[in-house]
Specification:
Elements (H helix, E strand, L loop, with lengths): L4 E2 L8 E3 L8 E14 L2 E16 L3 E8 L15 H22 L4 E2 L8 E2 L2 E2 L12 H15 L17 E8 L2 E9 L5 E5 L5 H19 L4 H10 L8 E2 L5 E3 L2 H10 L1
Parallel strand pairs: 1-6
Antiparallel strand pairs: 2-5, 3-4, 4-5, 7-8, 9-10, 9-12, 9-13, 10-11
Helix pairs in contact: 2-3, 3-4
């Protein structure tokens, strides 16, 4: 019996063909798939829109897993805000993809489990607007911490980080590689904090580059520079190869760190 499954953002479900098998013989293939999502104002690319994993056990059991890393298929985004136009543009695309998987594997979709953001269904994700979000602030409760964890995992522990929380406006510069933005180096306008915000849609490269820029900021703090001076120094200094390059044009300003995280998390 084949059961093509649907993932929720960051989660898993699977395609399973169940037979007796030898658990000692297991082959796994996993592919991260870039793609685009649509909004009324344009088309946006993510370097990891989906992930597909295929496991073969003993040559007789097939487990295929589809994971999605976008909220474009949802009636509410990951900050709990309704987005009916985005949903209308993208949900039919996901439903068509599931139909194609079902036809290929010969069985109906088996939705994955609900999570803090979404409720999978056989055609995509249920409309949960009437139910309300599971958390009032899922982004602040989970997503920001997840991004911090991924960045910290690439760095040694240090006592040389600047304060990471800013209460007012922040100045920032974009970090780019080729034609893609990987993230943003920022400093608080009141000179109280500085850091790096990864652009989620850039995938792992955003976090790899971030580790290099956090290292640059740590060196600046050890040398006695204030956060704003560290940002100016980052703009002037040659970047290490893994860090990407600072975009031309000088620092921009965001009304808050939250606004910059909104920019980096969605686009």
């Amino acid at each position: 019996m084949a059961e093509p499954g649907l993932a929720r953002p960051g989660g898993k479900a699977g395609v399973r063909v169940s037979h007796r098998n030898d658990p000692r013989d297991r082959v796994v293939i996993r592919i991260d798939c870039p793609g685009t999502w649509l909004e009324p104002g344009g088309t946006y690319r993510a370097e990891k829109l989906f992930a597909v994993q295929v496991e073969v056990w003993g040559g007789t059991l097939l487990v295929a897993t589809l994971e999605t890393y976008s909220d474009a298929w949802l009636t509410r985004d990951t900050r709990g805000r309704e987005q009916p136009e985005v949903y209308a543009l993208n949900a039919p695309r996901l439903a068509a993809a599931l139909d194609g998987i079902s036809a290929l594997l010969g069985g109906p979709p088996e939705p994955g489990e609900e999570n803090r953001y979404a409720a999978p269904s056989t055609t995509g994700f249920r409309d949960v607007r009437a139910e309300g979000p599971a958390y009032d602030d899922a982004w602040g409760t989970f997503e920001t911490l997840d991004r911090t964890r991924l960045l910290d995992s690439r760095l040694p522990r240090s006592e040389d980080d600047y304060e990471q929380i800013a209460d007012g406006p922040v100045r920032y510069v974009a970090v780019r590689r080729d034609d893609r933005t990987l993230g943003f180096v920022w400093a608080a306008v009141d000179d109280s904090a500085a850091g790096y915000v990864p652009r989620t849609a850039a995938g792992d490269e955003a976090f790899d580059a971030g580790a290099a820029w956090v290292t640059v900021l740590r060196e600046a703090r050890r040398s006695g520079l204030t956060p704003l001076a560290a940002l100016r120094d980052a703009v002037r200094r040659p970047a290490p190869p893994e860090a990407g390059v600072i975009a031309q044009g000088g620092p921009a300003e965001a009304p808050s760190l939250d606004a910059l995280e909104e920019l980096s998390g969605r686009y």
